[in-house]
Task: structure prediction
Amino acid sequence: MDVTTDAKGGFDLSRLVEFGKSIYSLVIVLVLWELVGQFELIHYYFLPPLSDIIIRFVELTLSGDMLYNAYLTLYRALVGLAIASVLGVIVGVLSARNDLVDWFFDPIIKIGYPVPIISLIPVFMLWFGIGDLSKIIMVAVGTFWPVAVNARDSTQQVQQNLVWAAQMMGTSDRRLLRRVVLPAALPGIITGFQIAMPLSLIITFVFEMVAGGGGLGALEIQGVRSFQSAQVYAAIIAVMFIGIGLDRGLRLIRSRLLHWT
Amino acid sequence: MDGRVTISELEKVYGEGAERTKAIEDLSFEVEGGEFISVVGPSGCGKSTLLYLIAGFLDTTSGTIAIDDEPISGPGTDRGVVFQDYALFPWRTVFENVTYGLEEDGVPKEERQSIAQKYIDLVDLDGFEDKYPKELSGGMKQRVGIARTLAYEPKILLMDEPFGALDQPLREALQDQLRDIWNDLGKTIVFITHDVEEAVYLSERVLIMTRHPGTKKTVKEVGLDRSGSREDIVTSDEFAEYKNSVWKSLHEETQTEVTL
Result:
């Protein structure tokens, strides 16, 4: 009898095996890590055994510290990203549709995009302090560029024929944006969000490491300063999970919105 | 319903200064209401430009284009364009593509649905209403393109090498379908093609354009008896005669191109 069941049967052993195969190499690395730690081939301070990190992770979770710090990091990253998404799409789409807007923003984008934004952390601390506001503004500024550039480029690249087809069928210039240009540019706009998302986490994390004020970056640096290596790695693992989760979420939204591509 | 297209002393120039190229020069002709006319010419003769000028997508440099004596200004729903690359809206289903023009016209939903269904059935796409363009073959996409254009009932169909990207059997099937549609609906059709056989098979007149800058070389009447089957028509002597005469005229143009 076949132990595997079809898609309707719920549990699917072959898929589980497939999944196992796909992470074999990862399992080997993790086991090696544990062994290296257990036999102290590398000093505990540099690389504690995986089990210690997991225990610390669980402790931090049970005490509520992990969730609170994860919440702070997520809040700062997502609010900043949301602001950048709204402004970036507006500026990007208008730049593509209007010569005057493009004339104004094009040099700014050319200069602004390549600037390594975290080099401005001290300036932001000077201007906006070290609290949430400062971090959120920096995330918004840093992630604005990829959102704006992708929105602009994908709007510019909307096929002329689609616009003509709509005009021919009676779409006025005023309605063209909503009826044709935005739907046609949507895949590129979402690509901009996907590029900006990990950037928002990086900026938040680094700012928290430098300026404190809670968050996973602060949790990590606190671990370094108090010689608690397990906490350092627990914070890294947490931000990794958040990154993976957000990426999966965006992919899901993308496939829902763009099922027609 | 009329749908007469009058083109007088049309000129189209692209670019400025050193980049200036004249695409169309001193072109005048008239398409009767309900007529099926093909436009052939060497590549780069401005036949697509001509179509886009009639569509109102491009502005004329000088001269006028009038529909039923009314000079055009920009695109309008009295004309419908069928594009070579289909230009379907990929985020809309087949059905939603076909209803687009009706939505823009403010036609109520129920009416929209029955009209769209009628034209979807007309191009044999029933059963594919909920598919997205990416799920369709080239031939099906172009049938959606035709249904979408017919649905809002323009008087004039402007077709830009619509079957150019399709293989031979499919092209023939769609040609026959288009002939039937023309017979049933009696629209004016301006059909751009580089395929002489297609032009002769489909249309009542063939406009042959000169090469760069494009203008009218000659217009050939095609007085074919089209009552029989495709095989009867294309194997007939008169079909061969018409085809040869268009081909010769066109060939003179391509010859000049080579010797130049």
